[in-house]
Design goal:
This protein is α+β, with helices and mostly antiparallel strands. It has 4 helices and 9 strands, in the order ααββββββαββαβ.
């Protein structure tokens, strides 16, 4: 009788673990993970603002005090430069790989000049850049990306209705482009 109860307990624990693994892995099997959704709703190497609600199939920005823009990118053909500057009280950036693992994050308090100026590149690309840093990247934060694809999430704080226009301009003018050094 004792061995039977032991076998049942082991079976229940195993079944619980199996169910947890299945539930946590479902997004990657269904194509409904964050990276796949970001790719679907906007073109690559361009920030697009998330909708504030309504009848849209695009991802929705739930927090009325924050405005969000997302950019899917690929560093396969070269580094990606993220740049944004504007009169907003707070902004934050998070960079994720294609498996939605956070690679890098920062905000306006940790940036060099208060502006977003970040270059995302593979380790090999960064070696070449660090050998002779182009003048336009002297103040940039260099981020190493292990994979070729990922996405960036840029958020800005909107403390009052009167700041909506500045937040929209900040996100609208943010760039997520392939970097080419000026010669």
């Amino acid at each position: 009788m004792r061995s039977f109860l032991y076998a049942v307990a082991i079976g229940l624990v195993g079944a619980a673990l199996l169910h947890i693994v299945i539930i946590l892995s479902l997004p990657s099997f269904t194509g409904r993970d964050a990276y796949t959704r970001v790719q679907t709703f906007g073109e690559t190497n361009r920030f697009f603002a998330l909708a504030s609600g309504g009848d849209t199939i695009a991802p929705i920005n739930d927090d009325p005090a924050m405005k969000t823009a997302v950019c899917a990118f690929s560093v396969e053909n070269g580094p990606i430069r993220l740049f944004a500057d504007g009169d907003v009280p707070f902004w934050s950036l998070a960079v994720y790989d294609s498996a939605s693992n956070e690679v890098f994050s920062m905000n306006d308090r940790t940036s060099v000049s208060g502006a977003l100026d970040t270059l995302i590149a593979t380790p090999i690309q960064l070696i070449g850049i660090r050998k002779a840093v182009p003048q336009e990247l002297e103040q940039s934060i260099l981020v190493e990306m292990r994979g070729d694809e990922g996405y960036a999430v840029l958020r800005t704080f909107v403390p009052a209705q009167s700041r909506q226009e500045a937040a929209a301009a900040f996100l609208g003018e943010a760039s997520c482009e392939l970097f080419t050094a000026e010669q």
